[in-house]
Amino acid sequence: MPPQPDAIDALDGKLIRLLAEEPRIGVLECSRRLQVARGTVQARLDRLQARGVIGGFGPQVDPAALGYPVTAFATLEISQGQGADVRAHLAAVPEVLELHTITGHGDMLVRIVARSNADLQRVIDRVVGFDGIVRASTAIALENPVPFRVLPLVEQAAGGGC
Hints:
One of its GO terms (biological process) is response to amino acid. It holds the Pfam family HTH_AsnC-type. The protein is an alpha+beta fold. Helices cover about 40% and strands about 20% of the residues. A 4-stranded antiparallel β-sheet has the order 2-3-1-4.
């Protein structure tokens, strides 16, 4: 199968892996470790950012370390035509970490965090305390044996060469 026009190559994959493993590394050190010119690394970074492959270089923050050790997922059913209002409502709730619109049972899937199981009730009440939300079904996450990751996907997209 021919490569996708916006696919990454092995060098892109190696660069992404290096940045994921050492996010504070500079362009010059990347070029030294990857054994390519500094300009090549900078051009690759610029291209990867422009295409949205790399979205940022911020710190990874652990909600549990901030005092929010409980993670839950809520499936929400919303009233027709209320999507924009519900999105705005959920964006204003600090404990809402992610929102996805979905197919299947429900209309939205929300990842939320709380300080405790008792605090989770407060968060859920705040989430569903909006006229546009018809019903919610919540599941508490017990553990996260495969945390969010993209490096295996990067390796596959790069043809296994990183």
